[in-house]
Amino acid sequence: MTVHVGDRIVLAHEPDRAHRRHGTVREVLGTPESPEYRVVWDDGHESFIYPGPEAIVLPAGTGETEDTAGPGDTADLEDAARVPRARSGRGENAVPVGRHDPVERIMRSPVRTVDAASTLRSAAELLAEADVGALVVNRNGVPAGILSERDIVRAVAGGGDPDEVWSADVVGVDADDIVWARPSDPILQVAELMRRHHVRHVPLRARARPGAVGIVSARDVLDVLYDDR
């Protein structure tokens, strides 16, 4: 099915219409063989989605209604990207997030990164400015590891000069050991990844998109698991 800018997309992850997500296509990307759409959702969030069976596309001007929002033609969230953080059931208009929902609903995006040659002081300032617990360390635009608050504290406590030590020198998780997930993976599955690999931060990457499109922490996951008891 051909999708155009202005078409409406309805994601039907749940049979209950109240949990369906409605949005508008703002940009058509990719190739005919591997299309991708930038969608602005009615809740103000934005993401990139790929064709799939979990949604229908309604041509612009067709008069979308709840009755037309059933499983359909295109656009799953298998490799969504750049979705702003959505807290579990918080805020007047927040939609509750469950353990089986895609982790994209709670990920932080865009991902905060630091260059491998940046000093620990620079990395610490980035962490404080962004109010996050970890940064993806990039070398020539490619993820080289994950640097956490704990890594910086240990390096400084061990005598490292924050103005002389590079971020890449103290990454707690290097490139070969990064545990990745996809934006469409269930939150509970990501929690199991963290438990199995003993990590506190999991970056998310999309098919055919280099680098991380989001990141989720153990605290993010625990908030959902606790609220969804």
UniProtKB/TrEMBL annotation:
Q: Which UniProt keywords apply?
A: CBS domain
Residues in CBS domain copies? 107-164, 173-229
Segments carrying the region annotation (Disordered) are 62-97
Listed InterPro entries:
CBS_dom, CBS_dom_sf, Diverse_CBS-Domain, DUF1918
Name the source's superkingdom. Answer: Bacteria
Query: Per its record, how is this protein called by name?
Result: CBS domain-containing protein
